[in-house]
Amino acid sequence: MLKRAFSCFPSGVVAVCCRVTDADGSPELAGMAASAFTTVSLDPPLVSLCVQNTSTTWPRLRSAPSIGVSVFASDQSALCRQLAGPAEDRFAGITPLATDDGAVFIPDTAATLSCSLFHEIPAGDHTVVLLRIEALHCDPGVEPLVFHASTFRALEARRDAS
After folding, report:
1. b vs e for 104-130, b when ≥16 Cβ sit within 10 Å of the residue's Cβ?
2. What share of the chain is helix, strand, coil (3-state, %, to 5)?
3. What φ, ψ does residue 82 adopt, rounded to 5°?
């Protein structure tokens, strides 16, 4: 019942990605989708996401010097599902954008945030992750993808009230 009640609250959906080093010392991409994402503070500039304690991806991301957050566009639900799927298939067919310091972004999204880890707070079966925004790019003309009632949705344009 609690999960059903939580699904009544719509949230934005993001990709959280970076370049990491594998066991052999070679660079590789790591990333995941997150729907528990929100803005936190303007000063300092912070956003948050919630990560399951059982995540095997977050431990790989958390030590990176720079983490890319991409706010999915309304037409990117398939990409979001892919980033939430098996780790070995997450970047199949995607040509991500990357910064010199390792942040990785999904192309054609509504916004990209280059972040560093600010703080982690244990919270039940999840960890609340606070990320400090170091650089960003946004396109308010791109409609974001929304997660609501356990499905993806797009925002509806406002109608004139007259």
Report:
1. bbbeebbbbbbbebbeeeeeeebbbbb
2. 10, 50, 40
3. -65, -45
pLDDT on residue 160: 63
Q: What is the pLDDT of residue 1?
A: 76
Residue 56 to residue 116: CA distance in whole angstroms: 19
User: In angstroms, how far is CA 90 from the centroid of its own chain?
Assistant: 13
Task: Tell me the DSSP string of 31-90.
Answer: EEEESSEEEEEETTEEEEEEEETT-SSHHHHTT-S-EEEEE-BTT-HHHHHHHHS-GGGT
Taking residues 56-81, report their average pLDDT: 94
Tokens of 152: 């993806």
